[in-house]
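User: quick one - fold this with coenzyme A bound?
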Amino acid sequence: MIPQWKIYPRSQGHSTVYLQNVVTDPSISVGDYTIYDDFVNDPRDFQRNNVLYHYPINHERLIIGKFCSIACGAKFLFNSANHTRRSLSTYIFPVLFEEWGLDVEHIPQAWDNKGDIVVGNDVWIGYEAVILAGVTIGDGAIIGARAVVTKDVPPYTIVGGVPAKPIRSRFSQKEIAQLLALKWWDWPYEMISAHLDAIQSGDLERLKQAAERQ
Ligand SMILES: CC(C)(COP(=O)(O)OP(=O)(O)OC[C@H]1O[C@@H](n2cnc3c(N)ncnc32)[C@H](O)[C@@H]1OP(=O)(O)O)[C@@H](O)C(=O)NCCC(=O)NCCS
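Assistant: Sure. Structure tokens for the protein plus coenzyme A:
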């Protein structure tokens, strides 16, 4: 657990923040150790600058797991960005309700609602990537720089491009199953710390043995 007061994991600079300690919107949840880096804007303004078209009236959530690395300018585009295709017109008549004598409660009819954005654990989101509403990104996935993610991303898959397509899988299906079973990101700090060398060197066998000893 990171203490609530701790915003900056690095004493040498203030461009990287522990995201869970700068987010105040109850509809955004962020797991332990997940970081956001921003060298253009103040990273503490993530909620305003990076979570876009996200209005309480939609009751949609942004859920981000533990140990994610979110690069500068990555953006999460929520449902109000999707002018509805159910109408004959994409014009936002319901939002401009006063102009058109419409009921304020019908504002959400201006857009199509695809739901929450869910990001797993240990996900790396590249520079200026865009994640669209309704997308789920699996544990261990990598989102390439400037990708536009329109569909779910399987665990430990690298995606890139517009729209984002799989580039390759990071590990074999067997290894992915083992990593998903291990869930090392849920281990206590001491246990992760004691096995950092195995994590960093890609020694899955040693990680499995450590889990079995527990
Ligand atoms: C995706 C990425 C991780 C590379 O993954 P990789 O598996 O090593 O991929 P490679 O470099 O071997 O490239 C494989 C293919 O993907 C393509 N590719 C790589 N990055 C891409 C991207 N961001 N968007 C689209 N295509 C990409 C390559 O052109 C190559 O295509 P080809 O097979 O047609 O030749 C990297 O390119 C990237 O985007 N990293 C994010 C960097 C970043 O934003 N950092 C922010 C600071 S943390």
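One thing worth noting: Residues 69, 71, 126-127, 142, 144-147, 158, 160-161, 167-168 surround coenzyme A (CB under 6 Å).
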